[in-house]
Amino acid sequence: MSGTANIMPPASLITDAEMELRAEVRAFLAEQRAGGRRVWAVDSWLSSWDEDFSRELAARGWVGMTVPVEYGGRGRTFKERFAVVEELLAVGAPVAAHWIADRQIAPSLLKFGTEEQKRAYLPRIAAGESYWGIGMSEPNSGSDLASVRTRADRVDGGWTITGSKVWTSGAHRAHAFIVLARSAPLDTDARHAGLSQFIVELAQDGVEVRPIVSMNGDQHFNEVFLDGVFVPDSRVFGEIGRGWQQVTSELGFERSGPERVLSTFPLLTEIVQNVAEGRLDLDADLGRLVARVTGLHQMSMAVSGALQRGESADVSAAVVKVMGTTTEGDVADYADLLLGDGSDVTSELTRLTTRAVDQRPGFTLRGGTSEVLRGVIARGMGLR
Amino acid sequence: MNEDFLTPDADLLEMLDGVFSSYREAHAPLAGRLTLDREFWAELDELGLVRLTGAEDKGGSGASWVEGRALVEAAVRHGVRVPAAENDLLAGWVRDAIGIDGVDAVSNAVSTVAIVDGNGVAKNVPWAGEADTIVVVWLVDEGYLAAEVPAARVRLTPGENMLGEPRDTIAVELDSIIGSPVAAETVAELRRRSALVRAVQVSAALECSLDLALEYVPVRVQFGRPIAKLQAVQNLLADIATETSLARSSTDSAFTKALVEGWSAEGLDFLVAVARSCAGHAASVVVRNAHQVFGAVGTTREHRLHEYTRAALAWRGEYGAVRSWDLQVSAAARNAGPGGLWALIAR
């Protein structure tokens, strides 16, 4: 069998049951859009924060879907969540408030959290009321995550955390984040050892959140300073010393998701609107991009099928992320090449295009840069 | 959904690899126009591979397209050029679907299929010059007609694709043959099947390019180490893998849809166009990067790389140029409109 046959899981079609669920979400979103009171945006999962919308979704059972009922969730499958999230991102729904909590924190809590932590946090996450950030990157630790310098020192009854975290999306509005810190001195022969994770509530003493303004004037990123923040033993996340294994164990889920493909789908839709209205010519490049997005949807469906079956999908997920985030950016660039001061296009298209080209550089950086991911793929093929 | 039936039988795969690799070992591919080795074809027939997917009561082996696809892929893998897909998956299928009888009882006859214009002409008919019969399909006022015509009754102008595979122009005297009616949907299915066969072949050729490159880079030493260790080379290979995955996934999705829901499934036209677009553009990156990895030796006749890279380029434009598939996807998107675009993709 060939190399790629081992990389990509087999095709996974949408089942009738999944289609029904999608239809429900589509009907809800169509109703919401008709109401017209919300912003439908490019990159909405990072930057469109709307707590009312998060609660409305939760009321319909579309937040914390995979959380068991006993913790306030809906006990649904990973593939069902995947279907709902695809539908939300395809229209650019404002999902940023609950995004990290729903995608990352809930599954991590289920896997590594204590019983008490699960009961303390999961019901409110599933209610769309508890918002979280990620505390991994630091000013001097981007792709090289093992180099984090934030320090956890053992004290009576817990740990004190000192250091700073950066690019923490939504920290100025979120309730808590999970901090990756060094709990034992760096061993240069085992750089991934001695790392641990801690749950830090952002209102705690010693936590300071400073905004980082993006180049277009927006704010969603922050730097978070931790000055001797006390974390009781009950808020240690997972096992001391197992931080690296914990943060890398869920990468397949994070990297192959629809947010790596659909960040600019609302823009693609608006291009089609302009083509349908005769404002733009029909050209082959549009088809090339629509075909690629379709292929990526099929690839991420295939990966989600593998994850659902409990198979490891680190390499196929990296494949989806490299190509998906590149394609999201290609959509932005395609639109930008069409527009000029003589264009007769909708103002919505101009708005979405500007937004997309501003957000584009982030697509291939966040969640593992394309360069790191190509390394993951190369390693998966036995080259490293 | 149980999709086990989508996996071909392991014994068959092994048999196919054995048959094609031993043939290949004894027969290095030639340059120029290719002919069909009738002895090899007879051997394939004895093994039940010539009409692999034909119904058993019509002399076929009763296998599914899953096995048919495996056969086509095995031929690609070993660089053996035979009209297996044209004879079995296309001409054989359409003959049985329409219910026309073969012109003779010879089981190992070679057939191809062509949709001709009102003058009875079709260009680039695969393997026409090597075929015994050609299933001809044409449109009249009342609808489509089809007939199986002996090759001797067809005027033929030879042509080849860049691999040397016959792609001949044929001219048939339509007045002199009696056609059986064919449903327009059957012709539409034939077009889908034809297009997807080439997507399968392109994807397989891209995978083989990747495999070949993965074998080469750990043993090719430059600057005192295997080039596999150079990050620049790793990146070339990662992008080959990524594009190849896209070609495979999009082809698989169309194929799976066809096998699960039928070749007339709603939306299959779109998925076929997507597969052809994705596989076609994937070939650009894979061919470029694979040749870059191999350096000058990869451009020689002696090296096997061209058996995959040139094949991918030759096939990606057959049954429609890549750009024509792009445009078909564009048109589908416009017709779906902004309200239907996502539903076109996710259904």
Q: Gist?
A:
With 384 residues, chain A is an alpha+beta fold. Chain A has 14 helices and eight strands.
Characterization of the model:
The complex is a heterodimer of chains A (384) and B (347). Chain A is of the alpha+beta class and 384 residues long. Chain A folds into three domains: 3-131, Butyryl-Coa Dehydrogenase, subunit A, domain 1 (Orthogonal Bundle); 134-242, Butyryl-CoA Dehydrogenase, subunit A, domain 2, CATH 2.40.110.10; 248-380, Butyryl-CoA Dehydrogenase, subunit A, domain 3 (Up-down Bundle), CATH 1.20.140. Helices cover 47% and strands 14% of the residues of chain A. Chain A contains 14 helices and eight strands. A four-stranded mixed sheet of chain A has the order 1-4-5-8, with helices on one face. Chain A has a four-stranded antiparallel sheet with strand order 2-3-7-6, with no helix packed on it. In chain A, a hairpin with a 5-residue loop joins strand 6 and strand 7 (219-232). In chain A, helix 11 (284-308) packs antiparallel against helix 12 (314-338) and helix 12 (314-338) packs antiparallel against helix 13 (347-363). Chain A starts with a helix and ends with a helix. With 347 residues, chain B is an alpha+beta fold. Chain B folds into two domains: 4-182, Acyl-CoA dehydrogenase/oxidase, N-terminal domain (Butyryl-Coa Dehydrogenase, subunit A, domain 1), CATH 1.10.540; 185-345, Butyryl-CoA Dehydrogenase, subunit A, domain 3, CATH 1.20.140. Chain B is 52% helix and 12% strand. Chain B has helices spanning 10-26, 38-46, 65-77, 84-98, 184-216, 231-261, 268-294, 305-316, 322-345, and strands spanning 111-115, 121-126, 133-140, 143-150, 155-157, 167-171, 180-182, 221-222, 225-226. In chain B, the strands form three sheets. Chain B has a four-stranded mixed sheet with strand order 1-3-4-7. A three-stranded antiparallel sheet of chain B has the order 2-6-5, with no helix packed on it. In chain B, strand 3 (133-140) and strand 4 (143-150) form a beta hairpin. Chain B is globular. Chains A and B meet through helix 1, helix 2, helix 5, helix 10 and helix 11 of A and helix 5, helix 6, helix 7 and helix 9 of B. Chain A: Residues 285-381 form the Acyl-CoA dehydrogenase/oxidase C-terminal domain. Chain A: Its cofactor is FAD. Chain A: One of its GO terms (molecular function) is flavin adenine dinucleotide binding. Chain A: This is Acyl-CoA dehydrogenase. Chain A: Residues 134-227 form the Acyl-CoA oxidase/dehydrogenase middle domain. Chain B: This is Acyl-CoA dehydrogenase.
